[in-house]
Amino acid sequence: MSFTLPDLPYAHDALAPYMSRETLEYHHDKHHLASFTLPDLPYAHDALQPYMSKETLEYHHDKHHLAYVNNGNNAIKGTEFEGKSLEEIVKGSYGKNPAVFNNAGQHYNHLHFWQWMKPNGGGDKIPGNLEKKIIADLGSVAKMKEDFIQAGVTQFGSGWCWLAVKDGKIAITKTANGENPLVHGGKPILGCDVWEHSYYIDYRNRRPDYLKAFMDHLVNWEHVAKMYDAAMK
Ligand SMILES: [Fe+2]
User: What is the number of other CB atoms lying within 10 angstroms of the CB of residue 58?
Assistant: First the structure.
Protein backbone atom coordinates (compact mmCIF):
# COMPACT_ATOMS: atom_id res chain seq x y z
CA MET A 1 0.00 0.00 0.00
CA SER A 2 1.41 3.40 -0.85
CA PHE A 3 0.07 6.89 -0.92
CA THR A 4 1.24 9.55 -3.31
CA LEU A 5 1.05 13.29 -3.03
CA PRO A 6 -0.84 14.81 -5.98
CA ASP A 7 0.30 18.09 -7.50
CA LEU A 8 -1.88 21.06 -6.64
CA PRO A 9 -4.35 21.73 -9.48
CA TYR A 10 -2.99 25.31 -9.68
CA ALA A 11 0.24 27.15 -8.92
CA HIS A 12 1.21 27.64 -5.27
CA ASP A 13 0.64 31.41 -5.62
CA ALA A 14 -2.62 31.17 -7.61
CA LEU A 15 -4.90 31.60 -4.58
CA ALA A 16 -3.16 34.67 -3.17
CA PRO A 17 -4.14 36.96 -1.49
CA TYR A 18 -6.86 34.70 0.01
CA MET A 19 -4.51 31.80 0.65
CA SER A 20 -0.83 32.60 0.43
CA ARG A 21 1.92 30.81 -1.40
CA GLU A 22 3.60 30.17 1.98
CA THR A 23 0.46 28.55 3.41
CA LEU A 24 0.18 26.20 0.46
CA GLU A 25 3.87 25.35 0.62
CA TYR A 26 3.45 24.24 4.22
CA HIS A 27 -0.06 22.85 4.03
CA HIS A 28 0.27 20.88 0.78
CA ASP A 29 3.97 20.16 0.49
CA LYS A 30 4.61 19.21 4.11
CA HIS A 31 1.46 18.47 6.12
CA HIS A 32 -0.19 16.43 3.39
CA LEU A 33 2.84 14.16 3.17
CA ALA A 34 1.74 12.05 6.15
CA SER A 35 4.02 9.05 6.52
CA PHE A 36 2.04 6.75 8.81
CA THR A 37 -1.58 5.60 8.63
CA LEU A 38 -3.47 3.20 10.88
CA PRO A 39 -4.46 0.07 8.93
CA ASP A 40 -7.73 -1.71 9.62
CA LEU A 41 -7.37 -4.92 11.61
CA PRO A 42 -7.31 -7.92 9.24
CA TYR A 43 -10.21 -9.45 11.26
CA ALA A 44 -13.14 -8.25 13.38
CA HIS A 45 -12.35 -6.85 16.84
CA ASP A 46 -14.04 -9.86 18.46
CA ALA A 47 -12.50 -12.50 16.16
CA LEU A 48 -9.66 -13.49 18.52
CA GLN A 49 -11.87 -14.15 21.55
CA PRO A 50 -11.57 -15.70 24.07
CA TYR A 51 -7.77 -15.41 23.80
CA MET A 52 -7.74 -11.67 23.07
CA SER A 53 -10.89 -9.72 23.78
CA LYS A 54 -12.77 -7.17 21.70
CA GLU A 55 -12.07 -4.63 24.45
CA THR A 56 -8.32 -5.26 24.30
CA LEU A 57 -8.28 -4.77 20.52
CA GLU A 58 -10.44 -1.65 20.76
CA TYR A 59 -7.89 -0.10 23.11
CA HIS A 60 -4.75 -1.62 21.65
CA HIS A 61 -5.44 -1.06 17.95
CA ASP A 62 -7.90 1.83 17.91
CA LYS A 63 -6.21 3.93 20.61
CA HIS A 64 -2.62 2.84 21.32
CA HIS A 65 -1.58 2.13 17.74
CA LEU A 66 -3.38 5.27 16.55
CA ALA A 67 -1.39 7.32 19.09
CA TYR A 68 1.90 5.95 17.68
CA VAL A 69 0.71 6.88 14.18
CA ASN A 70 -0.28 10.43 15.14
CA ASN A 71 2.70 11.09 17.42
CA GLY A 72 5.04 9.62 14.81
CA ASN A 73 3.69 11.86 12.06
CA ASN A 74 4.09 14.89 14.32
CA ALA A 75 7.61 13.91 15.41
CA ILE A 76 8.75 13.37 11.80
CA LYS A 77 7.48 16.71 10.51
CA GLY A 78 10.40 18.90 9.46
CA THR A 79 13.07 16.24 10.12
CA GLU A 80 15.37 14.36 7.76
CA PHE A 81 12.98 11.38 8.03
CA GLU A 82 10.12 13.00 6.12
CA GLY A 83 9.21 10.96 3.05
CA LYS A 84 11.45 7.98 3.96
CA SER A 85 10.26 4.38 4.24
CA LEU A 86 9.22 3.07 7.64
CA GLU A 87 12.20 0.68 7.86
CA GLU A 88 14.60 3.50 6.97
CA ILE A 89 13.02 5.69 9.65
CA VAL A 90 13.22 2.96 12.32
CA LYS A 91 16.87 2.18 11.60
CA GLY A 92 17.93 5.80 10.99
CA SER A 93 16.34 7.28 14.13
CA TYR A 94 17.57 4.57 16.57
CA GLY A 95 19.80 6.18 19.19
CA LYS A 96 19.43 9.57 17.49
CA ASN A 97 15.87 10.81 17.75
CA PRO A 98 13.89 9.08 20.54
CA ALA A 99 10.55 10.76 19.70
CA VAL A 100 10.73 9.58 16.10
CA PHE A 101 12.20 6.17 16.96
CA ASN A 102 9.76 5.21 19.73
CA ASN A 103 6.70 5.96 17.59
CA ALA A 104 8.11 4.63 14.30
CA GLY A 105 9.33 1.46 16.02
CA GLN A 106 5.97 0.86 17.64
CA HIS A 107 4.16 1.62 14.36
CA TYR A 108 6.32 -1.00 12.60
CA ASN A 109 5.86 -3.52 15.44
CA HIS A 110 2.08 -3.14 15.58
CA LEU A 111 1.58 -3.16 11.79
CA HIS A 112 3.07 -6.65 11.88
CA PHE A 113 1.57 -7.73 15.21
CA TRP A 114 -1.97 -7.57 13.79
CA GLN A 115 -0.84 -9.75 10.87
CA TRP A 116 0.96 -12.21 13.13
CA MET A 117 -2.37 -13.26 14.63
CA LYS A 118 -5.51 -14.86 13.21
CA PRO A 119 -8.60 -16.64 14.54
CA ASN A 120 -7.89 -20.36 15.14
CA GLY A 121 -4.16 -19.79 14.79
CA GLY A 122 -1.27 -21.12 16.82
CA GLY A 123 -0.48 -24.74 17.41
CA ASP A 124 2.19 -26.84 15.74
CA LYS A 125 1.11 -26.71 12.08
CA ILE A 126 4.02 -24.72 10.71
CA PRO A 127 4.69 -24.54 6.95
CA GLY A 128 7.42 -27.04 5.95
CA ASN A 129 10.38 -24.79 5.09
CA LEU A 130 10.02 -22.79 8.25
CA GLU A 131 9.42 -25.85 10.43
CA LYS A 132 12.65 -27.45 9.16
CA LYS A 133 14.62 -24.29 9.86
CA ILE A 134 13.14 -23.98 13.37
CA ILE A 135 14.17 -27.57 14.13
CA ALA A 136 17.66 -27.01 12.68
CA ASP A 137 18.35 -23.74 14.50
CA LEU A 138 16.29 -23.99 17.68
CA GLY A 139 16.07 -27.73 18.42
CA SER A 140 12.36 -28.46 17.97
CA VAL A 141 9.01 -26.71 17.59
CA ALA A 142 8.23 -27.42 21.26
CA LYS A 143 11.58 -25.97 22.38
CA MET A 144 11.09 -22.89 20.16
CA LYS A 145 7.67 -22.26 21.73
CA GLU A 146 9.03 -22.71 25.24
CA ASP A 147 12.01 -20.39 24.65
CA PHE A 148 9.87 -17.75 22.88
CA ILE A 149 7.46 -17.70 25.86
CA GLN A 150 10.41 -17.55 28.27
CA ALA A 151 11.87 -14.55 26.39
CA GLY A 152 8.53 -12.74 26.73
CA VAL A 153 8.16 -13.63 30.40
CA THR A 154 11.68 -12.41 31.25
CA GLN A 155 11.51 -9.14 29.28
CA PHE A 156 11.59 -6.75 32.25
CA GLY A 157 8.96 -4.05 31.81
CA SER A 158 7.48 -3.16 28.43
CA GLY A 159 8.80 -4.69 25.23
CA TRP A 160 8.60 -7.53 22.76
CA CYS A 161 9.88 -11.08 22.24
CA TRP A 162 10.87 -12.23 18.78
CA LEU A 163 11.77 -14.85 16.24
CA ALA A 164 14.22 -13.08 13.94
CA VAL A 165 16.50 -14.07 11.08
CA LYS A 166 20.09 -12.96 11.61
CA ASP A 167 23.14 -14.16 9.67
CA GLY A 168 21.02 -16.83 7.97
CA LYS A 169 19.74 -18.32 11.23
CA ILE A 170 16.55 -18.00 13.24
CA ALA A 171 17.14 -16.69 16.75
CA ILE A 172 14.89 -15.90 19.72
CA THR A 173 15.41 -12.43 21.17
CA LYS A 174 13.70 -9.84 23.34
CA THR A 175 13.81 -6.05 23.22
CA ALA A 176 12.63 -3.17 25.41
CA ASN A 177 9.91 -0.63 24.62
CA GLY A 178 9.64 0.11 20.86
CA GLU A 179 12.86 -1.60 19.80
CA ASN A 180 12.87 -4.54 17.41
CA PRO A 181 15.43 -6.82 15.69
CA LEU A 182 15.81 -4.39 12.75
CA VAL A 183 18.05 -2.16 14.86
CA HIS A 184 20.19 -5.15 15.92
CA GLY A 185 20.98 -6.37 12.41
CA GLY A 186 18.15 -8.91 12.22
CA LYS A 187 14.84 -9.26 10.41
CA PRO A 188 11.79 -9.95 12.58
CA ILE A 189 9.52 -12.79 11.42
CA LEU A 190 7.34 -13.10 14.56
CA GLY A 191 6.88 -10.79 17.52
CA CYS A 192 4.67 -10.77 20.58
CA ASP A 193 3.82 -7.51 22.33
CA VAL A 194 4.41 -7.83 26.09
CA TRP A 195 3.43 -4.27 26.97
CA GLU A 196 0.68 -4.45 29.60
CA HIS A 197 -1.76 -2.78 27.16
CA SER A 198 -1.64 -6.02 25.17
CA TYR A 199 -2.77 -8.36 27.96
CA TYR A 200 -3.79 -6.64 31.18
CA ILE A 201 -7.53 -6.41 30.41
CA ASP A 202 -7.73 -10.15 29.66
CA TYR A 203 -4.97 -11.69 31.79
CA ARG A 204 -4.24 -9.05 34.46
CA ASN A 205 -0.70 -9.82 35.67
CA ARG A 206 -0.57 -13.32 34.15
CA ARG A 207 1.83 -12.56 31.28
CA PRO A 208 2.91 -16.23 30.93
CA ASP A 209 -0.73 -17.28 30.30
CA TYR A 210 -1.08 -14.58 27.63
CA LEU A 211 2.11 -15.73 25.87
CA LYS A 212 0.98 -19.36 26.00
CA ALA A 213 -2.43 -18.46 24.51
CA PHE A 214 -0.65 -16.41 21.80
CA MET A 215 1.49 -19.43 20.84
CA ASP A 216 -1.26 -22.04 21.16
CA HIS A 217 -4.23 -20.19 19.62
CA LEU A 218 -3.31 -16.97 17.83
CA VAL A 219 -0.08 -17.13 15.76
CA ASN A 220 -0.64 -16.87 12.01
CA TRP A 221 2.17 -19.25 10.98
CA GLU A 222 1.46 -18.72 7.26
CA HIS A 223 2.30 -15.03 7.69
CA VAL A 224 5.41 -15.88 9.72
CA ALA A 225 6.50 -18.25 6.90
CA LYS A 226 5.98 -15.48 4.35
CA MET A 227 8.21 -13.12 6.35
CA TYR A 228 10.76 -15.91 6.80
CA ASP A 229 10.92 -16.51 3.03
CA ALA A 230 11.34 -12.76 2.41
CA ALA A 231 14.04 -12.48 5.11
CA MET A 232 16.08 -15.34 3.58
CA LYS A 233 16.13 -13.81 0.08
FE1 LIG B 1 1.15 -2.68 21.80
Answer: 13
Q: How far apart are the first and last CA of the chain?
A: 21
In DSSP notation, 54-81 reads HHHHHHIIIIIIHHHHHHHHHHHTTSTT
Cα–ligand 1 centroid distance for 77 (angstroms): 23
How many angstroms is it from 21 CA to the middle of ligand 1?
41
DSSP letters of 90-117? Answer: HHHHTTT-HHHHHHHHHHHHHHHHHHTB
The domains of the chain are located at 21-115, 128-231
Global pTM value? 0.86
- Exposed e or buried b per residue across 144-158, where buried means at least 16 C-beta atoms within 10 angstroms of its C-beta: bbbbbbebbeebeee
What backbone torsions phi and psi does residue 80 show, to the nearest 5 degrees?
Answer: -65, -10
Q: Which CATH architecture has domain 21-115?
A: Orthogonal Bundle (1.10)
Q: How confident is the model at residue 129, as a pLDDT? A: 95
Which CATH number describes the domain made up of 128-231? 3.55.40.20
